[in-house]
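In response to reviewer comment 3 from the previous cycle, which asked for concrete evidence that the modeling workflow produces usable outputs, we include below a single protein chain processed end to end. The sequence was submitted unchanged, and the resulting structure tokens are shown without manual editing.
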Amino acid sequence: MDTATTNQTETTSPFVKKADHPIRVLVADDHQIVLQGLKTILDHEGFEIVGEASDGREAVRRTLELQPDLAVLDISMPYMNGIEAAAEIRKATPSAKLILLTVHTENRYILEALKSGIRGYVLKSRAAGELIEAIREVLGGRIYLSPGISQTVVEAYLQQGSGESETLTRRELQVLQLVAEGKTTKEVAAALAVSAKTADSHRSNIMHKLNMHSVADLVRYAIRHGLVQP
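The workflow returned the following structure tokens.
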């Protein structure tokens, strides 16, 4: 009896589902070294890595294909950043839990992440030590924020409604990211499945809202706000 009890204890894990199926995870990051590091951490804890992605659009597509229990997304990825990808995943696969890895602690990122369906917000500098704890909290139906983030979230909510003239729509943010990545109007249109005229109209609206007059200005803005990396 003692042996049976011991074996049962050893095989019981907070990350094992019914019928002893491990939690299925998709990881997305455009840096191969970071991707491998995440996979190593998750594999060591007994998760099943069912897929990986190197950009936001691929992350959405692979999530739809594989239906993982959890997706771990980097915030800065080509074509579609982690927050935008999370919003798309949430609409198409609402059962998937979402965790974001980021270097940003600014109010706007955290607030947008939570609105998009992210339930775990982990700073990359703390990922090795916090990722598993974040997963445990998120799988338990709770929200996990890296230490020090909570106060930022409170401040962000308090500042809501203060009126920010440069607020862009989700579609405009997608266009801005693609333009900042060096995509032409035709390439932006193809990536978003819209006409070139619509893509150009979005770019004009963005410049008007941000009071900017060149692509170089847009690139600097995108870098400053974490949509693309310098």
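The chain has a mean pLDDT of 82. We consider this sufficient to address the reviewer's concern, and the full set will be provided in the supplementary archive.
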